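Records of this kind hold a single protein each, on a pair of labelled lines. Below, a sample record shows both lines together.
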Amino acid sequence: MNWRAVGLKFCKVAGLPILEPFVRLVAGEDPKEQLKEIAKYILVPALAIAVFLGFWGLASKHIVANSVSLPGPVKTFSEGGKLISAHFDQKRLDAEARREKKIEAVQLMQKSAAAEKKAQTVSGQQKEMLLANAAVLKKRAVAAANYRPSSAPSFIDQIFNSLKTVAFGFIIATLIAVPLGVLCGMSPWFNAAITPLIQVFKPVSPLAWLPLAMLVILSLSSSGEPWLPIAFLTSAITVCLCSLWPTLVNTTLGVASVDQDYMNVAKVLRLSWSQQLYKIILPASLPLMFAGMRISLGVGWMVLIAADMLAQNPGLGKFVWDEYQNNSQVAIARIAFSVIVIVIGLIGLFLDRIMICLRNLVSFGNPQTA
């Protein structure tokens, strides 16, 4: 397989059609046709973004409430840059503080060793005082060596915490939805029993799930300290309850849509139930299953902001709420940056591309780019 075929296959599997005309252009294909494709995938979207930014800039001059106006693109990106630079400044200060504490720990241990050595040359009350002093110095050295900065989480830290929350909730939703979907697809009776529950619970808002999730978590953790923070668990379980339905429905559809000829061959070969499941049903239903997981991940990411706001989980939702409470021009610019650029713009796109890539890796025939 030559490099051109490898490059085109990568573009299709990764869901990146924007790169395909560049590969073809380098390979020497019709330049006019490839430039047309480049214009379609790059120039036209760039023009659309420029128009959007223009309307945003115009709107920022007219939308004013309580002496606070909508920040324009320049102000928004400027505040976003300050948030990111503040993260690295804080990390640098934390690293310097840890380094100083480690040096202090080494010095304290040296003083402790010196006190113990001196205690060996004396006796009586003076020896006891030296040993007691050495013990105190050791405790201080251990505390300095285990020092952890107590600075508040930065904007980047909150982004990673939100990603962990969504990943945790999405994994739990997948572990619940896939087995249930397989059973629903394989058994019409089980599907008839589960379908009413799906239709009832699927439209429920995340704002309605969150108090119930918090009640259950508080009840389970009343006997002892939970192994994860309660706010984190509440947000993650809320994300799970809202995002498992697309995976469940698509998995059911995928399993139920397996070609009957495959099942007839399985009967002829006298495959067991487990062999039919792992060799025929699951491989044939994986594309639809991953399509459902892609939708579920998108739903979970959208639900996250509301869940973090109400549960006060230190993620993007809490960041948006805290900045909203400040009610200042800078705070509104930070909200615009976090919501428009980070949440919807980059991270949402990145997560969606990952799921498209995974779906294409398990799809039969031509992979799809969207």
Notes: The first strand starts at residue 64 and ends at 65. The chain has a mean pLDDT of 84.
